[in-house]
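Quick illustration, no need to memorize.
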Amino acid sequence: MNYYNYFTEIEEHFVRRRGKHLFVSPMDWSLMATWRDSGVPLHVALRGIDRAMDTFLGKMTHAESRVGSLFYCHSAVMEEYARHLESHLGEEPASAAETASAAPASAEEQDRPDKTAVLAFLNARILEIKSVSGKLSSLESAPEGVLRLVPRLEEIMRDLETDKQVDFEALDRDLAILDVTLVGELRVMVAAEQIEVWEQEAKKELKIYRKKLSKDTYEKILENFMRTKIHRRFDVGELSLFHM
């Protein structure tokens, strides 16, 4: 899985294929997060976008016609992902020795973040979490669950500094669990009225795509949309290497 610029590379590729600059909407970013959470590799997502755009351009009858949302590409991306999984069905995972002796390194391996970048990323998230209290009114305080994340992230940093080989996939899974805790704790600090506004906004934007999405995908997109809103409300970045 490519950790570098998963979101920005998809955004830039979609805008480039669309042929005209377009600010990708928060809902489109939630869709990208759903692809990421489903395990869709970057190159597969890009291939699906190409396939969807090629089909659209082949049918286009008006010179000014444009694809308005990344959701147009969702079906093609998931079909490409299904092909990707099928093509790797039954493959035996390489042993550690085979992986270590493989040369040259694959593009995916080359794209893995180095420890220095990861440490800087985690340190930035720690500082943002510590600053949450300063963004609340004088009558509020950051939930204890938020502040308890700091020692855990500091522990992860210490382990990274001493580990010679880092399992970035395992690390990102650990961070994802911590992010669920973070969002849950921050959510209780948001007024119920604001949560309702965000939920109605999300449902309104998704209305035209509802019939084309599975129930699980629809709910996951809504969840990612709300998660993004909460992160931005408190200016705390998501705990995920994909956002480095």
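Residues 113-243 form one domain.
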